[in-house]
């Protein structure tokens, strides 16, 4: 259910330079006393990312726990709320007085939107299957490996350097996920067979790898195709990619015949018909509100900060799952959480160093130009 992270990019120097330049210009033209407005917006976006990331996953599991059986329905929930992105873009552009550059709409971008949408559809379905067979806490911890896959694919697609901190993060996140292969909690509590548990694990790790690939592809498109991406351009990528994937998963829902189960599921849902509708609609909305928060953090701060907030938020889900679904927190899972958090911190620290180095270089460059 963490597909929303495909709009968070892991930090290319050209893009970060544009964001830092925007930040430096803003700080020189806006009085320091007004900075609180920016940090208020940042705080709101952080809240949206952290809460909606956990909420969308918990609601998907809640659907399964109370009689829901359609993996395609859970897949659709991740994509069908895309009209919220249109509304967010409309009101944001009215406020910022920014217009879409027609030159951004070309054949290359259209093909990119379609390819990203197809990949996103596959990732959404695989994550839905994983969530069906795995406890929420296990599911979320496995998804933490997306940072490792992002670094790996970025090495090949975006010339990402493997520093000691990145290598350490890759190792820790890989071990954290691998440990959960030996966890039998899902079988013992939810009567899931060993085969189903393994299937859930494979689908979840595949979805995590897909997210790493799509993150690297998005970064490649932003830096090589769009060159200097505007707010409108990034929102267009989020909107049209989600629109394509929504069409694909709706086709899957009807082609599989699972749409016929909706009426009976609603009647037999343990929490009632109203709760059934509220669960589905809330899951769909939280999925897209998460995207709004992530995109907002990119433009209020940087892609590095947005990615870091997402990483920090992932361990929240197992804690919430333990409270809501009484997921067992045995020693193996706690150790996995510790390794995952350690991997997050290592990953975030390396990007903090990269951003600090780039910002120092940019500031020195501005001072040299001023002196001249």
DSSP summary, beta strand count: 0
Global mean pLDDT: 78
Largest sheet composition = none
Compute the CA-based radius of gyration.
21 Å
Morphology: globular
Quickly count the helices.
16
Spatial separation of the terminal alpha carbons: 52 Å
How would you spell out the order of helices and strands?
HHHHHHHHHHHHHHHH
Alpha-beta content class: mainly alpha
Give the strand content: under 5%
Can you give the helix content as a percent range?
A: over 70%
The unreliable regions are 4-30
Task: Give an account of the 3D structure.
With 372 residues, the protein is mainly alpha-helical. The radius of gyration is 21 Å and the shape is globular. The protein has helices spanning 13-29, 35-65, 71-77, 83-96, 107-133, 136-143, 146-157, 164-179, 185-190, 194-224, 231-256, 262-268, 273-300, 303-313, 316-324, 331-371. The model is unreliable at 4-30 (pLDDT under 50). 78% of the residues lie in helices and 0% in strands.
